[in-house]
Amino acid sequence: MQELKKLKKNLLISFFIYLCITQMGKYMKKETKNIILEAAKDIFIEKGYAGARMRDIAERAGINKGLLHYYYKTKKIMFVEVLKFSSRHIFPKLNDIMVSEIKFNKKLELIVDVYIELLSQNIKLPSFVINEMNYNTEIFINSIFEAGLFPDIPKIGLMISKDVEEYNIENFDPFNFVLNGLSMILFPFLLRPVLNRNLNINDKEFINIMRLRKRFIVDTLINGLKN
Prior knowledge:
- The chain is an all-alpha fold and about 230 residues long.
- About 80% of the residues lie in helices and about 0% in strands.
- The longest helix is centred in the N-terminal third of the chain and has 50 residues, at about 1-50.
- It starts with a helix and ends with a helix.
């Protein structure tokens, strides 16, 4: 009887150790992948898709090239994962805002805030996107589709059209409304190096200006609906 109790105890201990090791392994694997993706994101933004090398990414992540290839067989696969990783928070947040029942002007405030904060935290991202679309068009566009990041423009347009019904607008054009909003947000970030030099400001000061600009963007878009 004593031996049976001892055996059960040992089995429980062994099972507990197995669970701990398994969970620890999963955690370490996830952490390693996150480190790789953060390093890859930095390298892709610094050097572009064509200029990025797997060796550079491995060195930035502090791992050997063999381990890097264990997680990501090709640069293309890694690029798609970086796009997913970089946008893992923004798209669920935007979707929650779009489907919410709050008034349209408040919804617009939240959307503008999400985009400006995203770009403020990834200040070189707009230039990277433009560069990749110009020089690696097919790879970049295909990667966006593979990552599931291309917006459903007709669906967004339909949602916005429904939201702006309170303004009684005839012939509302949701496509141009979205383009106007994106232009007011993105264009200053693309001009950042020129603006910084012209205004004699640094990146931190530029970001503060963009955060103050949120109200102007929302007011301009809303006033456009009223006119």
